[in-house]
Amino acid sequence: MSTSDLTAVVTGAGSRRGIGRATAHALAAAGWNIAVLDLDEAGAKETADSVAAAHGVAALGAACDVTDDASVDTALATVTGALPPVGAVVNNAGITSPVPFLEVTAAEWERVFAVNIRGAYNVTRRLAPGMAERGFGRIVFLSSVSAERGGGVFGGVAYSAAKAGQLGFARALARELGPAGVTVNSVAPGLIDTDITGGALEGERKTALLAGIPVGRNGRVDDVADLITYLCREETGYITGATYDVNGGSHIH
Questions:
Q1: CA gap 244, 69 in Å, rounded
Q2: Ranges 2-6, 108-112, 204-208, most confident
Q3: Cβ distance 245 to 188 under 8 Å?
Q4: Alpha-carbon Rg of the chain, whole angstroms?
Q5: Which residues contact 210 (CB under 8 A, 6 or more apart)?
Q6: I need a labelling partner for 150 at 20 to 30 A (CA). Which of 28, 42, 56, 125 fits?
Q7: Residues paired with residue 88 on neighbouring β-strands, in sequence order
Q8: What is the DSSP letter of 66?
Q9: Which is nearest to 247 in space by CA: 147, 158, 115?
Q10: How confident is the model at residue 151 (pLDDT cuts 50, 70, 90)?
């Protein structure tokens, strides 16, 4: 089954400078049709329009709150009604939280887990059965270097815990879905130049952070998007349950 006959769903891909949008473009360049889901409906549609115009694939953008069952159902009904079968899911929608553990409220903890863990569950649980039934699928989780090194970049304990939860989610799911031709992998970006990190990457802070990165620069969204696209290839069928670091060597373990 060629990727041109399949759709890749990318969540949280509405932001103009985000990893999600770059990933949607990279996957489309590789032949995938694209479904963009985002809380920001205008942003999702803008991404989809730019992808379709640049790569000549079918693309649509839909409003979706990944934490809300009904919203996910509605968005995915739109996707399945308008585009070819889903062959890849990129769980990119996520939120960070810098709140120190001794100050974190129950509400803040739940908010971070709702988007990063339950959101990934809500989308994946609905799309995995179809992929398993068709005998082909690629699922990628956007974790974080914070999950591996224990915070210390931007995210606090809640963020690190949620992103580490995604790693366990992906590994266990890889075991279950492997026999059905579905691979499940994680990507753990380090310091990537996006709107989330942009404001914090100035002056002395930036100099100090870059000093700890062997390749001498912060990451670009394309660095992450290219890796995700590789993991979604039809040929990449013997890699599953793996975690790929994209951090310029800032965390070597």
A1: 30
A2: 108-112
A3: yes
A4: 17
A5: 216, 217, 218
A6: 125
A7: 8, 138
A8: T
A9: 147
A10: confident
241 burial type by CB count under 10 A (0-12 exposed, 13-18 middle, 19+ buried):
middle
At 206, list the tokens: 């930036």
Hey, what's the torsion of the CAs at 7, 12, 13, 14, to 10 degrees? 130
Mean pLDDT estimate for the chain: 94
pLDDT score, position 201: 59
Question: How many Å apart are CA 176 and CA 155, to the nearest integer?
Answer: 30
Query: Two tokens at 37?
Result: 């889901």
Q: Which two tokens stand for residue 104?
A: 């974190």
pLDDT tens profile 181-230: 999 999 999 988 876 655 555 677 778 878 889 999 989 999 999 999 99
Report how far residue 241's alpha carbon sits from residue 226's, in angstroms, rounded to the nearest whole number: 19
CA dist 136 and 133 (Å) reads 8
Question: Which residue among the candidates 159, 230, 238, 244 is catalytic per the annotation?
Answer: 159
Distance, in Å, from the CA atom of 103 to the CA atom of 101, rounded to the nearest integer, reads 5
**Alpha-carbon gap, residue 45 to 218, rounded angstroms:** 29
CB 107: neighbour CB atoms within 10 A?
Answer: 8
CB crowding 199-213: b at 16 or more within 10 Å, else e: eebeeeeeeebbeeb
Phi, psi of 69, deg, nearest 5: -55, -50
Cα-based torsion angle of the residue sequence 126, 131, 137, 143 in order, rounded to the nearest 10 degrees: 10
175, amino acid identity: R
